[in-house]
Amino acid sequence: MWVDLRSDTLTKPTPAMRMAMANAEVGDDVFGEDPTVNRLESRVAERLGKEFALFVPSGTMANQVAIRLLTAPGDEVLMHHDAHPFHYEAGGAAVISGVTLRLLGGQRGHLGVDEVRAAVRQPNVHHAPATLLSVENTANRGGGAVISAAHCAQLCVVAHEAGLRTHLDGARLWNAHVQSGTPLATLAAGFDVVNVCMSKGLGAPVGSLLAGPRALAERARRVRKMLGGGMRQVGVLAAAAEYAFDHHVERLADDHARALRLWEALRDVGYAVEGAPDTNILYMRLPEAPAFAQRLAAAGVGAIALAHDRLRFVTHLDITDEGLTHTIGVLQALATPGSR
Ligand SMILES: Cc1ncc(COP(=O)(O)O)c(C=O)c1O
Questions:
Q1: Is residue 136 within 6 Å of ligand 1 at its C-beta?
Q2: What are the structural domain ranges in the chain?
Q3: Under CATH, to which class is 251-334 assigned?
Q4: Is domain 15-247 in CATH 3.10.150.10, yes or no?
Q5: pLDDT for 17-39, tens place per residue?
Q6: Within 10 A of 287 (CB to CB), how many other CB atoms are there?
Q7: Which residues contact 114 (CB under 8 A, 6 or more apart)?
Q8: CA-proximal residue: ligand 1, atom 16 (nearest)
Q9: Pocket of ligand 1 contains residue 199 by CB under 6 Å
């Protein structure tokens, strides 16, 4: 048995999703003529409480378009030191937008309101002016932590008062919504732009949407084109995303319950688990995590070492209760004295 908990990006399209893809009406989306893309964009924009949404190939492109839209070269972007654009986007913000990233602290991916306030400096010829605050919800490297709507609202008020614009990297905003019961539009409310991913826990093979005010729509399309993200008969992919949007959001609660079950089992065996998961991501600390991940893989369990001493497990659409039972059994066996 192979149970792959390395990432929620590993999900494969379900048979029903493949049917939706096969039956999708398509057109040339660079011409704005793909009816399935157009429908998906307007439905997602509406759920997020924004005026427009743009379908892009990846969460990385969505983040990069957002940063490019809301900054000028030489500006500074404030974000948590665990944020995705800093760790995993190949330095794109520097290359594409010419900005510097100012990294701030905070427990489990939570940016502190006071810390953001303190990071905004008075205008001075020596400084790169901070023009954008970027917040990640849920916080991936923060253990899938949900940042509450109230906390996001406070961050946005502080940023806007200081003249910054605001971006929400909501790759897993669906998880925050399901866990907290807060409407997506409420979670997105204070942010100028927000992106969501369809290819993480929702199970679509590809695709993200960037949403915001109508005034930014044309520039967003142009930046997407500049980055090579203008796609043609892409309704086949939008159909997968729309299927996920309609059928795979509420079921994220199952992933959260399984992550908690795994966390409890690891804790009971004596592994150094980090805080109980809010959603579908959990971490544990152990020496030589990459070697341990290899031993897990040999026993049929995929986990990922995100540092030499930190291992991540992520539950998702393709993880069953049976798979979880297998995983727990393997981890219990590897925890016996002398086997770690
Ligand atoms: C929080 C967050 N933002 C953005 C991304 C980028 O998404 P993609 O892999 O589609 O480029 C990821 C990917 O896992 C992520 O976890």
A1: yes
A2: 15-247, 251-334
A3: alpha beta
A4: no
A5: 999 999 999 999 999 999 999 99
A6: 10
A7: none
A8: 140
A9: yes
